[in-house]
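Format notes (please read before filing issues)

Several people have asked whether sequences and structure tokens are stored in separate files. They are not. Every record keeps both together, in the order shown below: the sequence lines, then the token lines. Line labels are part of the format and must not be stripped during preprocessing.
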Amino acid sequence: MTALTAPGSTAAPPRRPSTSRGLVRAVLLLHRPALYIWAGLFVALGALLLWLYGPGMDAAAEAWRQYDRCTTANCSYDQDALLRYKSYSQYATFAVTFLPLLVAAWSGASLVGREMENGTAHLAWTQSISPARWLVVKLTLPAALITAGTSVLVALHHQVWARSQGRIHSAKNWSESFTFHANGPTTVAFALCGLAVGALAGLTLRRSLGALVVATLATGAVRIAAGVALPYLWPTVRTVSSLKNDGPVGGGLTLHHGLLTSTGAQLPDPYCGSSRYTACRHLYDRLDAVSFYSDWHPYSHYWPLQLVATGLTLVITALAAFVAFRLLNHRTGTASKEVRQ
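Then the structure lines:
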């Protein structure tokens, strides 16, 4: 039995499947091994961080309490628990910190570089998918997964570090480079930067191996530059202390420290020690030094430094993505016009 169409009415045109939705499915299928590896890394690192937060830290904290109660040279404490926690926490910190390099290597070699090298990208552009839309999906989908996964790992790492303070004597200070970045959103920004830089390298070189190397090195350079610039991203606190101390007083992230003269001039720290020592007192007298000084960042500067560094990294990320789109448009614009004609 067939349906009849009312007079004067027109049949609805058949709905075409969304090309963007099809491209999303194609990206997920094409990069399914990378998705599995990312999920495996997320689960493994998440499990390790949860262990460090719970039973691992509890055992290490109890061992430290046993050690603090020691009054003799041969008292017993669970040294294995201390060494195990120290090693595993370092592994977790390094793994979280180096995730952006893995993202950059994958983005340059597989996400874009390999498809430019073997012609898969050009084939997609002939299937009613514009190059710009192709790149949008290529970047947006991984960016969402990377942001979600990395954010959860960073949050877990920060919780582990916060709970260790005052309980684990070997816990790293907040200002230690790897700990600082593994604890905050800079790592998420570095991962997104690696994604954008990898895409740009893949479009530029159109070779998977070359793009892998360039993207990894470029992301590492951004990470190093951020570490060098970090102390300058927020105004420091100055602490002036007596020469009777063993050296400048300060903590956290130190930018400059040394000696102040009677005229207010700043001199490098000679690392002599307290003026209570005769040799040091004579040295300070010759230098006309009257006090120590230290320009440093206390823990209260942690979030301002994190947010400024994250913002600058995201600016670099946006710039890399913009250049990638411009390069793609430049290389495919002429060909697209010829196809339309």
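For reference, the curators noted about this record: The first strand starts at residue 237 and ends at 241. Residues 42-67+79-233+301-340 form one domain.
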